[in-house]
Design brief:
The structure holds two protein chains of two kinds. Chain A is α+β, with helices and mostly antiparallel strands. Chain A has helices spanning about 35-45, 80-90, 115-120, 170-180, and strands spanning about 10-15, 20, 25-30, 55-60, 65-70, 70-75, 100, 105-115, 140-145, 145-155, 160-165. In chain B, about 25% of the residues lie in helices and about 25% in strands.
Chain lengths: ~190, ~475
């Protein structure tokens, strides 16, 4: 699949925070009963992770389990492995009512890092990004200016942000404008 | 004489005086009655003058009238602070398909479709837009065209109750569809009005993929979730909007099969992949799903491929189709070709007041089903009134193109002294295939008046005469798409 290209094709911007395209990532939408044992086993077999709690992101080696809604998770894995991991979920949940769908190509994945990362997002999203309010491992589905987006904070202090593929340019340009040098507010300094 | 007071909310001096006369003597009441000072400036431009007018009307000094509660902005702020980040390249989100860069590099003239930008046509050199559209259509009808159809909505509906659910959402029966097959469906709202249409494919026993219009994807998905979460919460159905997971490319024209065959070992014959069927294939080494569906009336395959591979597929199709003069066509070509076939377009033939029965789509409405969304509304007296305007084709006597939205006049005048009307144009184009203007319209008793003549006054004076005809102008028996 050497012809596969992400919407932003490796774009990068260095302001008072660094904005980077994360390239293609395997993404699986999983809808079902998040309290069921079988779904828990399915998530474990596909990602090695448990079921994230509300607004939680669990991350593992090249994988993540992200809480999306009371009956929906987004699972991340390497792009090339999505078919086999989807098959593992289908097998684990055979005969049950669920929906597992490959959405790897429907999204863009960005990384926002550096000391100004919190402030870059705080300017664009109606989310309290103060360190005590938004600790590592927290995930939020929200609005970024005029588009829907979701992001979570990893243990190294960098945010990962997901938006729809069609608006990847808009999302990147928004983050670029927000992180432009000279635009620091110093709210979380 | 009108004197404006609040420039943002269009409040006049006389409005404040009226408020006083009506007994809104408290400044807070007068504010809410007139909306004076309730715009984003919070009265900074108008309130002092407004209070003076109110005081004058009440015959009391200004301090006695008082002021409304002060709200921010307390001090002046710049317009850029109000506008925020929404300017320049981030004025608003532009949705781009995986083929956007190719369209741009190849001279696409853009058409905004919601937040998407779709190519309207691809003019070559000095070619006019109209000439480009005509060239694209002629090439597609006689040889081979390509359309970027990625913006079409695609919603997965899965679960043991998925068939039952779609039988409620669409006017026809979807639960009887066999895996591997596609069916066209109409979606109505509770009031019976046609809100969306598209082709549904059954992927397996429990799973359907519903195509929606480009503008309808998010709304239809929300409509589905609304009914599932609020009304039929015990039905076992999950949905997912996968619109952007796929680039979708329509390969259209007499040379479509021949071109695809160069890129795959799969059997594309009429038995293996018949009209209204779909199949998973490897095409140009890429994993694709081919839907044999047609919005143009030609032999046509819509090929869905993961979005990240969309450009690779497009490039492969351009190369394979080169020997047939492969021609990318835009939304205008798409519109003209569907109109030549008499296919309706949501937003042209529909405007929120039109029901499927108005459009001659009775064949897509099940009479066997006990219920579907809109069924009861469509049985109301106004909906079954034989006087409703109905869809017909319109053919100008002089071959010209009818003005868009023109009304057909009827004898006499209404109570306002305006000409009575008996119909209106819903779609109108120059058809390069037929070499003259074609149109569709809604006309009083239209289907029973074939051959009748109508007068359509033009905005700049004069009248265009048009004859009522069948709305299918081209290949009435569907022989071209079914080869």
């Amino acid at each position: 699949m050497s012809d596969a290209v992400s919407a932003l094709n490796g774009a990068r911007y260095e302001g008072f925070a660094t904005i980077e395209d994360q390239g293609l990532s395997g993404m699986i939408t999983l809808r079902g009963d998040l309290a069921s044992k079988d779904l828990k086993a399915a998530v474990k077999s596909a990602t090695g992770l448990g079921i994230p709690a509300q607004r939680q992101a669990l991350t593992g080696k090249g994988t993540a389990a992200l809480w999306m809604s009371p009956d929906e998770l987004l699972l991340l894995c390497p792009y090339a492995e999505v078919t086999e991991r989807l098959a593992a979920i289908e097998a684990a949940l055979k005969g049950q009512h669920f929906l597992a769908q490959n959405v790897s190509d429907a999204r863009a994945l960005l990384r926002i890092s550096g000391a100004g990362a919190r402030e870059t997002l705080a300017k664009l999203c109606p989310v309290d990004l103060a360190p005590e309010a938004f600790p590592p491992g927290m995930l939020r589905r929200t609005r970024m200016a005029q588009i829907p987006a979701a992001f979570w904070l990893n243990n190294e202090g960098a945010f990962h942000l997901i938006c729809f593929r069609s608006v990847a340019d808009y999302a990147f340009n928004l983050l670029k404008a927000s992180a432009r040098r000279g635009g620091e507010v110093g709210l979380y300094a | 004489m009108k004197s404006w007071l609040d420039y943002q909310n269009d409040v006049k001096v006389s409005d404040v005086q009226l408020a006083a006369r009506e007994g809104y003597e408290s400044v807070e009441h007068a504010k809410r009655y007139t909306t004076l000072g309730m715009a984003t400036d919070q009265g900074k431009l108008s309130n002092i003058n407004g209070l003076a007018i109110l005081s004058d009307a009440l015959g009391q000094p200004i301090p006695q009238t008082g002021t409304t509660t002060f709200r921010p902005p307390y001090t002046p702020i710049s317009f850029s602070a109000i506008a925020g980040a929404a300017r320049g390249e981030i004025f608003q989100p532009l949705r781009k398909t995986p083929l956007h860069a190719w369209h741009e590099a190849n001279g696409a003239h853009w058409e905004p479709v919601g937040q998407w930008r779709r190519p309207y046509c691809y003019p070559k050199g000095e070619e006019s837009h109209r000439d480009a559209v005509n060239r694209e259509i002629t090439q597609t009808r006689t040889r081979l065209g390509l359309l970027d159809a990625s913006t079409l909505g695609k919603i997965i509906v899965k679960g043991p109750d998925a068939g039952r659910f779609l039988d409620m959402l669409y006017t026809n029966v979807m639960s009887s569809l066999k895996p591997g097959r596609c069916r066209y469906g109409l979606m109505c709202n509770e009031n019976g009005f046609l809100m969306d249409d598209g082709v549904v494919a059954r992927l397996d026993e429990e799973t359907f993929l519903c195509h929606t219009t480009t503008g309808g994807a998010e709304g239809v998905h929300g409509h589905m979730e609304d009914w599932l979460q609020c009304e039929w919460w015990d039905w076992k159905v999950y949905t997912a909007n996968v619109t952007e997971q796929y680039a979708q490319i329509a390969v259209v024209g007499p040379k479509a099969r021949e071109t695809l065959a160069k890129l795959t070992n799969a059997d594309l014959g009429n038995d293996a992949l018949p009209f209204m069927g779909w199949a998973d294939l490897t095409l140009a080494g890429l994993p694709v799903r081919a839907y044999r569906i047609s919005f143009s009336g030609e032999l046509s395959y819509e090929i869905a491929v993961p979005a990240s591979l969309g450009r690779a597929l497009w490039d492969a199709l351009l190369e394979a189709g080169a020997e047939h003069g492969v021609t990318p066509y835009g939304t205008e070509g798409l519109h003209v070709m569907r109109a030549e076939k008499g296919f309706i377009m949501i937003g042209d033939e529909t405007d929120g007041t039109v029901i499927p029965q108005d459009l001659g789509l009775g064949w897509a409405i099940s009479r066997k089903k006990a219920d579907y969304l809109g069924k009861r509304a469509q049985e109301r007296s106004h909906m079954t009134d034989p006087n409703r305007w109905k869809l017909v084709g319109l053919e100008t006597l002089d071959g010209s193109v009818l003005p868009d939205g023109a009304y057909a006049t009827a004898p006499g005048h209404n109570a306002n002294g305006q000409r009575n009307t008996q119909g209106r144009v819903t779609s109108t184009y120059y058809s390069p295939t037929l070499g003259r203007g074609i149109a569709m319209g809604l006309v009083h008793n239209g289907p029973d008046r074939m051959g009748d003549m109508l007068d359509f006054p033009k905005v700049d004076g004069g009248i265009v005469k048009a004859r009522i005809v069948d709305p299918v102008f081209y290949d009435k028996d569907g022989e071209k798409q079914n080869v």
